[in-house]
């Protein structure tokens, strides 16, 4: 079982040699100490991956991050309805990064099939590869959201690293990427031919300038994601200095917490990865604290999770629906709006049945005026 691939947390290190107090997170989770065959009683599992050998741009010591994040996370306070969490420790040291991928893949396959959502503490962002590939036991097609300032699809090296790992995911046949959303990339870091190529595949490209200050309007992106991968460099340098190469532009710290919370609320999400944080470049643990607080918000979002999609007939009474006809489409679109939380869904009809996808109010507004939104056009094109 997975005990062949993991080692326990250095409890004395993450607790600084002091006992956790009653309402500290560290006093309210289970630390993995012996082999467990049934993880179904746990709602969230935490796994650290101290792998940074393929980190680009001088960020090799990102492997130090998992324990530092734990030190800050486990001193934060629990909240009402705090989920049942198990900390499995860290993936054992491997001779090669490829072996680390395999170890993480093996562990994730067990966790994905037993139910708990997984928080991955990286390490470098190329660990997104096993994070996604382990989903093949559950899905033929997956939806992935990457939160990053750059598009890690460089062609300089044929070997996988944290600057080109997306290529491996795009070319993967099982599971294949039904949707890839690049959330918050910055255009001056993006090769225009690269963005055009990704758009031609009908993947979603959301520039930082489009979504800054408006993260709640894009919560539907995370509602449909099976996996979320976050690079600390998506946050502006003044808020998160803990990386070798940083930028003065990016999300603000509170926006990262919003993103993590929406990922936690998603009924589809299986894992979230926090990557590329380098404690050696951090200032007064500012970046480490930010990731810890983002994880707190992920857990809080998880506590509000509810699967009330209109796809389930018993949920239809919770929605108002709207029939929208668009020139050029054989069948009308059906928009569903939740009466309580205001979330929107779109039903795209085909010959057999309807396919339901989360969407935003802006998509409904455009379509109701006869204009097919880019987001829905991309979904129809992928279908």
Give a verbal description of the structure:
There is one protein chain. With 383 residues, this protein is α/β, with parallel strands linked by helices. It has helices at residues 11-14, 65-73, 97-114, 128-133, 165-171, 192-200, 208-211, 219-223, 253-265, 286-303, 361-368, 374-382, and strands at 6-7, 30-31, 44-48, 85-91, 117-121, 141-147, 176-185, 204-207, 227-231, 271-275, 319-324, 333-338, 344-349, 354-359. The chain is built from twelve helices and 14 strands. The two termini are 38 Å apart. A hairpin with a 5-residue loop joins strand 12 and strand 13 (344-349). The strands form two sheets. Strands 1, 2, 3, 4, 5, 6, 7, 8, 9 and 10 form a ten-stranded mixed sheet that branches. It has a four-stranded antiparallel sheet with strand order 11-12-13-14. The model has no long low-confidence stretch (mean pLDDT 93).
SS strand fraction:
15-25%
* CATH H-level superfamily of the largest domain: Ureohydrolase domain
Average pLDDT works out at: 93
The shape, in one word, is globular
What is the CATH class designation of the largest domain?
Alpha Beta
* CATH fold naming of the largest domain: Arginase, Chain A
Distance between the termini: 38 Å
Count of runs of 4 or more consecutive helical residues: 12
Number of strands: 14
Rg for CA atoms: 20 Å
Into how many domains do the coordinates divide?
Answer: 2
Unreliable segments of 5+ consecutive residues: none
